[in-house]
Amino acid sequence: MDKTVLITGATSGFGRASVERFVRGGWRVIACGRRAARLQALTEAHGDAIHAAAFDIRDQEAMQRALDALPAGFRDIDVLVNNAGLALGTAPAQQADLAQWRQMIDTNVTALVTLTHALLPTLIARRGAILNVSSIAGSYPYPGGNAYGGTKAFVTQFSLGLRSDLHGTGVRVTSIEPGLAETEFTLVRTGGNETASDALYAGTQPITAGDIAETLWWVANLPPHLNINRLEVMPVSQSFAGFQIHRD
Length: 248
Ligand code: NDP
Ligand code: 8X3
Prior knowledge:
The chain is α/β, with parallel strands linked by helices. It has 8 helices and 9 strands.
């Protein structure tokens, strides 16, 4: 296998599990994230198969420096996994912290389109693929989902728009939309509240990071004439509930 994947958000959750999956499949992996020590641990575990790129994805200059510094063997990127992202807070919009909204937009939207824009020439030359990690929160609103859901609706629609623009290039684009999944996501969302995070996942069987890594691996390795446009994945333990009605 002579393929290279760049995975953002590789220090935790879906991203870290995906690094392990693609390395196991024989791919070269560019692993991105802010926590350099965690990236270092991945390179120590897997050696030459991984190039660690530690930068804050919201910092466009740092992103470009990291891309410019890619070693020759890691430059021909076949697959971009836009996975880095976060939710912050669960407060209703009228009580939400604007700084948290802006951080979600900067990370989940602005950084994702910036990196995609930077890599499009390479991905077109390689007839590659873009796998965007969106969320069910982009399709189904829930109380406190406000700006986070908005960012993920953007990711899904941006993915479909890319499909249109990349028509004829051979580049594939997929929006992966997971539901409840146990990662560090809720720890981050609650500002490090382990009790709240544990409570959300207690007594049920959420998606695991490995489940989504397998999904990404499957999509990336489909025959080149097939495109999964959107893929919504939920645990069996999660389904839909009704609308809310306010009465005076
Ligand atoms: P984790 O918190 O476990 O992982 C998030 C990753 O994003 C980390 O590696 C983190 O790296 C990276 N990241 C966040 N902010 C930045 C930044 N500014 N610069 C660089 N990297 C950043 O959560 P998940 O694995 O669950 O989340 C991965 C994606 O999946 C996200 O886009 C999330 O919205 C989405 N998702 C999650 C679901 C869930 O229930 N868990 C369900 C549906 C979608 P570092 O902190 O080292 O920078
Ligand atoms: C994460 C899934 O439902 O917690 O994107 O927003 S949800």
